[in-house]
Amino acid sequence: MKTGHPRRRLAVAITAASMLALTACGGSGFSESAEDGGGEAAATDAPVSVLIGSSGDAETEAVTAAVDSWASESGVEASVIVASDLTQQLSQGFASGEPADVFYLSTDAFAGYAANGSLEPYGEDLANKDDYYPALREAFTYEDQLYCAPKDFSTLGLVINSAKWEEAGLTEEDIPTTWEELADVAEQLTTEETVGLGFSPEFQRLGVFAAQAGGGLITDGEATAASEANVEALNYVKQMMTDGVADYSSNLGAGWGGEAFGKGLAAMVIEGNWIAGAMTNDFPDVEYQVAELPEGPGGKGTLQFTNCWGIAADSDNIEGAKALVEHLTTPESQLAFAEAFGVMPSLQSVAADWSEQYPELEPFIAGGEYAQNLPAQQGAADVLGELNSQLESLESSDPQQILESVQPLVETIATQ
Question: For 155-303+375-414, CATH number?
Fold first, then answer.
């Protein structure tokens, strides 16, 4: 059992000087002009605006430095706009006919904008498109066409409190690799003050068990919410809650799993790699270790969360926007962003370098090989909201009834 706290600080800011040292794109992999016969818009000297939703100063400074570096090399003016409400400002930009040229685009917003023609479908032109994790490409594919470059991603893993693990007499060999072992160590870790396993009351966490059972809400375009695999998964979670060895962070008096973990209310939690920054900033004295989630009846499974670099179809400089995205997704840029604000590179070829830099967090990026996407079709957010409202009472409800009640809702979005 590793007892050393990962002291590497993922939330530190990258200075403009260090970002400017990154290798700038010497040329774009995209066609520079419509005259090339590819039918693409010609490059212009029109400025390129970049709209982002930032997690804080570190992310803002890192992205701004990378954009400034590209602008300096390319001679094209470029600027970063930090949204106070990314969803609203992106929508307003499209409605007014003056959207940002490049922007963060979430999976739940992607399908709608792809369907109404708001997005430039540049993804198939990416020279490195095959280097992105398959599930990340899938997340931003519409009508069999990759629209945009996944900018980074996060997965869920098992985060373990080192001190509580040792107090329970557990060792490295006891790290759970199966559901049975997870329930067993959760029981051993449970005390009057601490529950063995904690998680947020939502499918965005419990969905890992569905994946491990071989399930999911949508499978190969078909609604499978009420599948036997999903029922088995929720019954497993319910049993642990009934046994008192697992509980929701909200029931423990915490706003999310990371807070429950940091306060010692849960000895283990299911959370994403963003927990590293939260622990460094809010609970620096809590030592912990990360492990891959245990396998279920269907094998390994976790969930992933991602955004892409969207480009507006109405951009005045589409080729410039493409070249900028190419720069922002180089291995050098992705590793710099990882150091600045804790994200994981979306390029498979960078995984080994990232793992070497952050070995204590390697289980998170290992999950990229088998992670599932949450449904992202139009209306999916509302369906997940309804499912989550019912999952709040999972311990006192019938999992099969919960899933059967949302099955028709999933059917309405599955084929979109």
Answer: 3.40.190.10
